[in-house]
Q: What sequence folds into this?
C-alpha cells in the first residue's frame, strides 16, 4: 500500500513539473542599454518575456489501473499482463473507489452493476483513444431519446430513517380567508395600539385579493419558459445556457415577447410551484400556439 | 422601478424618474435601503393594507409621512403574528382557513408503514403549529406517530 502511494505521488509530481509553461519576468535594465531612449537617464522598465514549449495534459494521461476489482472479468487477464510490462504506468486504485454503493432494492442493484461494468469498459476503451483526434460536438445529437423521462432515483429512500416536513404550503395550503383575517386584525391593531383614526374601521376597508399579485412577473416567465420547453425534445428541456437561448428565440418568434438573457439566469431558480391557475394559463398558451 | 402605486393610484412615470434621479435602475445597496420586498406568504395582505391606509389619508386630506405609515403597518402585521391571537383563530377554525390536501393521508400512511419517523422541519417550537398538525393528523388517523414526534422535539428543544 505504501509502495502504491509513493508511486502515485511521484506520478503527480511528474505531472506538476511537466506542466510548467510560460514565464514572464520583469527586470530593471539601465537606460543606456534599453532600446527606449530616456531623457533623464533613469532606469527604464522593460519587460522580458521567455516562452517555453507547452505540454498539454489530458484527463486520459492520468493513467490508473482498475485491476483491483475482485469480479472484473474483462480486465483481470489483460490488465495483469500490461501491468507487468509497463513499469512506470498504472497505479491500482482502492476497491471502494471503483464500486458504486449498493441500493436496498435488488432491481436498482442490477442497474448499478450494469453501470459499473459500463464505466469500466469506458475506462478501458478511453485508453485507446487519442484525445487530440476526437472531435466532440456540443449540440445534442438528433437521434437522442425524445420521450424518456430521467428522474433522480439514486436517493435510496429505503435507507432514510426520518422524514422532515415544512409546514406552510407543503403539508397545509391556506385559503384566501387567512389573508382577510390578517388584514382585519392588523387594521384593528393599527387603530387601537398606534392611534390611527378610528374612522378607518368604519369606512369599510377590506382585503382585496385582486390588488396585488404575488410573484407575477416571475411566474409569467416561468410559465412561458416551461410551456415552450414542453414542445422541445428532451435535451432542450434542460436549463443549459445554449439550450435556453434556443428556447428564447422560439418564444420571441411565436409570441413576439423578448426575454433578456439576464432574466433567464434567475428563471431557472424560480422557487414557486406552478399551481392550478397557472396550469390553465399553460393550456391557453398551448392552444394559441397550436 | 417599473411601476409604483401611491395608495390605489398609479404614480406617473415622470415622478418615478424624479424620485430616482433620472434612472429607474437601483444598485443593490440603494435597493436594500429604499425598497422592501413583499414576497412573503402574508405580503399580499400587508401590501393591500399599506395601500388602503395611504388611500384613506389621501381621501380624507390627512397629512402623512409615507415611510412612517409603511413602518407602522408592517409592525402592526408583525405584532399580529407575535401576539398569537392570529394563530389561535386559524387553529380553531381549520375548516375555514385550510385548503384540503388530497393525497396527504396516503403519503403519510405509506411513510408511517415503512417505519419512518415524521418530524417538522421548521416551526417546531411554535405551539400553534403543533395544534394545527394535531388537527391534521386527526383527519389522517396518524395521531400517535406524529404527536409523539412533536412532544419529542419539544423535549429536546427545551433542553437546549
A:
Amino acid at each position: 500500500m505504501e509502495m502504491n502511494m509513493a508511486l502515485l505521488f511521484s506520478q503527480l509530481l511528474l505531472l506538476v513539473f511537466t506542466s510548467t509553461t510560460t514565464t514572464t519576468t520583469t527586470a530593471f535594465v539601465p537606460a543606456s542599454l534599453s532600446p527606449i531612449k530616456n531623457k533623464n537617464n533613469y532606469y527604464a522598465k522593460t519587460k522580458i518575456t521567455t516562452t517555453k514549449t507547452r505540454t498539454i495534459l489530458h484527463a486520459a494521461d492520468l493513467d490508473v489501473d482498475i485491476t483491483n476489482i475482485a469480479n472484473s472479468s474483462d480486465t483481470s487477464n489483460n490488465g495483469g499482463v500490461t501491468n507487468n510490462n509497463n513499469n512506470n504506468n498504472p497505479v491500482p486504485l482502492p476497491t471502494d473507489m471503483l464500486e458504486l454503493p449498493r441500493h436496498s432494492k435488488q432491481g436498482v442493484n442490477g442497474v448499478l452493476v450494469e453501470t459499473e461494468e459500463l464505466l469500466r469498459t469506458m475506462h478501458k476503451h478511453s485508453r485507446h483513444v487519442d484525445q487530440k483526434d476526437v472531435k466532440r460536438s456540443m449540440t445534442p445529437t438528433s437521434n437522442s431519446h425524445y420521450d424518456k423521462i430521467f428522474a433522480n432515483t439514486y436517493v435510496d429512500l429505503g435507507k432514510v430513517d426520518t422524514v422532515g416536513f415544512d409546514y406552510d404550503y407543503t403539508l397545509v395550503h391556506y385559503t384566501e380567508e387567512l389573508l382577510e383575517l390578517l388584514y382585519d386584525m392588523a387594521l384593528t391593531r393599527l387603530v387601537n395600539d398606534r392611534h390611527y383614526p378610528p374612522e378607518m374601521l368604519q369606512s369599510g376597508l377590506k382585503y382585496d385579493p385582486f390588488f396585488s399579485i404575488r410573484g407575477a412577473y416571475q411566474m409569467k416567465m416561468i410559465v412561458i419558459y416551461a410551456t415552450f420547453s414542453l414542445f422541445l425534445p428532451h435535451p432542450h428541456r434542460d436549463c443549459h445556457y445554449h439550450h435556453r437561448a434556443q428556447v428564447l428565440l422560439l418564444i420571441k418568434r411565436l409570441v413576439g415577447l423578448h426575454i433578456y438573457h439576464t432574466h433567464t439566469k434567475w428563471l431557472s431558480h424560480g422557487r414557486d410551484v406552478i399551481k392550478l391557475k397557472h396550469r390553465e394559463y399553460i393550456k391557453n398558451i398551448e392552444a394559441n400556439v397550436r | 422601478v417599473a411601476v409604483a402605486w401611491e395608495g390605489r393610484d398609479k404614480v406617473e412615470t415622470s415622478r418615478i424618474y424624479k424620485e430616482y434621479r433620472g434612472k429607474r435602475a437601483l444598485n443593490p445597496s440603494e435597493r436594500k435601503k429604499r425598497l422592501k420586498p413583499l414576497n412573503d406568504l402574508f405580503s399580499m395582505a400587508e401590501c393591500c393594507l399599506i395601500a388602503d391606509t395611504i388611500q384613506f389619508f389621501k381621501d380624507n386630506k390627512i397629512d402623512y409621512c409615507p415611510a412612517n405609515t409603511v413602518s407602522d403597518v408592517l409592525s402592526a402585521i408583525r405584532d399580529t403574528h407575535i401576539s398569537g391571537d392570529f394563530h389561535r383563530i386559524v387553529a380553531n377554525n381549520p375548516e375555514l382557513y385550510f385548503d384540503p390536501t388530497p393525497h396527504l393521508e396516503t403519503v403519510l400512511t405509506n411513510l408511517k408503514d415503512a417505519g419512518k419517523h415524521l418530524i417538522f422541519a421548521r416551526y417546531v417550537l411554535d405551539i400553534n403549529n403543533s395544534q394545527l398538525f394535531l388537527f391534521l393528523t386527526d383527519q389522517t388517523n396518524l395521531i400517535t406517530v406524529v404527536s409523539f414526534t412533536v412532544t419529542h422535539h419539544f423535549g429536546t428543544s427545551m433542553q437546549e
Observations:
- The radius of gyration of chain A is 32 Å.
- The longest helix of chain A spans residues 106-126.
- The mean pLDDT of chain A is 58.
- The first strand of chain A starts at residue 22 and ends at 29.
